[in-house]
Amino acid sequence: TIPLVIDTDTAQDDCIALLAGLLDPRADLRAVTMVAGNVDFDHQVRNAHLTCNVAGRLGEVPIHLGCRRPMVRPWESAENVHGDGAGGLTMDLTGCEPETEHAVDALIRLAAENPGELSIVAIGPLTNIATAVVKDPDFVGNVKTLYVMGGSNNARGNITAAAEFNFYVDPEAAKTVFAAGFEIVVVPWAPLTLDQAVFDQPKLNEIAALGTPLGDFFTKVCAATLEFDRSVGIDGTTHPDSLTAAVLLHPELINRSARYHVDVETAGELTRGYAAMSWGVHGLEPNATVIEEIDAPAFYAYIKNLLATRTTLS
Ligand code: BDR
Ligand code: CA
User: Fold this and answer.
1) Neighbours of ion ligand 2 (CB under 5 A)
2) Could you tell me which Gene3D superfamilies the record lists for this protein (predicted)?
3) How many angstroms separate the CA atoms of 295 and 298, rounded?
4) Of 20, 79, 184, 200, most Cβ neighbours within 10 A?
5) Are 113 and 107 in contact (CB under 8 A)?
6) Measured between alpha carbons, how far is 133 from 79 in angstroms, rounded to an integer?
7) 212 C-alpha vs ligand 2 centroid, how far in Å?
8) Atom of ligand 1 nearest to the CA of 241
9) Beta-carbon contacts of residue 283 (< 8 Å; ≥ 6 apart)
10) Which bound ligand lies closest to the C-alpha atom of 224?
11) What tens digit of pLDDT does each residue of 197-237 get?
């Protein structure tokens, strides 16, 4: 199994990424760490607990609360895209409390407990990860691989023309992380997610037809984003976060990747959060592997199988 932590701003596809961490037999999910991003922080925490509950694992995986705003800027949400992030779903979560240890300390501790073994799947703004870098000089060396959902190669951002949401919200954190010396794998918004990890209506119908609690959960938590995506001309639901968890757990889903030097714009007037992905010609040392092509049918099959795994909620 693969020891991992998922660092998340839990809403919509973050929930599906958590399902992968919670239910994939290859995953040894050591903790979930929460970071300010998509929606109201308390909603995100509730969404993480809801997801553990539908996975039948409530109370089994520690949930740590992390940074509540970006390093130097005010928090900006994506509530217009995600609503409350879980389709208005409510469940009895009595008795279920997050850990008292801060997410940044948990990340540092878990990495130090098994140096070189822990992978991190970072699917929100990189505030917790950057803060851990700043706090503990050994953190970077203790982490095996950092999987980052963020950035867009050649722009085509989803929050501005230049930027993808996670990097836009906390560009200083993203810049800190790419300069830190981690082994990094990037799942970019464009072209990868946008062109290869969209589930169109026939696929969504198949998922709904599963009739399983997890299939119904998927349909519900993805509904708000589906509506938004359609309004901007995307033909289905987008799955950047679950794809990030999936490529860690199943590297065979990766058809092609390339080494880049990635840096993040913090000062531009129109380009805040832009991911400058520089290939060899600029003479910069590569610091990240960027995934460029996945086996899209296999990724869809993976998610569909995951959603078929539990047939009852108890
Ligand atoms: C990313 O931003 C969020 O809205 C999603 O959860 C995903 O992590 C995509 O840009
Ligand atoms: Ca996310």
Assistant:
1) 9, 14, 123-124, 241
2) Ribonucleoside hydrolase-like
3) 5
4) 20
5) no
6) 29
7) 24
8) 8
9) none
10) 1
11) 999 999 999 999 999 999 999 999 999 999 999 999 999 99
